[in-house]
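Field reference: sequence -> structure
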Amino acid sequence: MTQVTKSRELSSPERLQAFTDAVVAIALTLLILPLMESVGELADHDGTTAEWLAAEQYALLGFALSFILIAVFWVHHHKIFHSVKRVDAGLLWLTVGWMFTIVVMPVATSLSTQMESDWAQPLVYIGTLFATSLMLLMARIYLRSHPDLHQMSDDDAVMGIRASFIVSGLFLAALVLSVVIPGAGNWPLLLMLLSEPLQRLDRRRGARSSLKR
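Structure field:
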């Protein structure tokens, strides 16, 4: 039985987490490269810092937003793996899928900030964020259905799934709004401000349900 279990473990949680940390670090670094290039281009034309700030204000905002969002996704991924004790093929490939969406983020950010505005930009940017949140949701659902892989209680697993479902739902709503409302750009992402209040409300409802039991 032990040999069968070990054969299904393709990586240790610690090794996989270290790999994801490296991927996230590289993605965060890549976010700044277009801004670094723009500094060099403006310097070649004897530009000033004030001119660069004015020209790259939207790129700077896009960089800051993507940096924060990737960091938040990384924190949530760490929270999930904090309770993981074994990694099987399913969890491994879900993590690989999550890393893929993280690696795409610098490209989506550049398209959103460096190119002329069009209908596809918010679709790519918000769509990538939705995909990232969806992979985390799927990982949580997978872990709940495989209790031998983690040390979470069932209540904690359910609460994690519900919290991830709220986040993914808000990203999906933002994605739909960006498609339905031409010219909205990435402004529908303001819906994410509702994430924490909705999660608190859900936790309160969950606590009340537990008391009634």
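Note: Confidence is low (pLDDT under 50) at residues 1-7.
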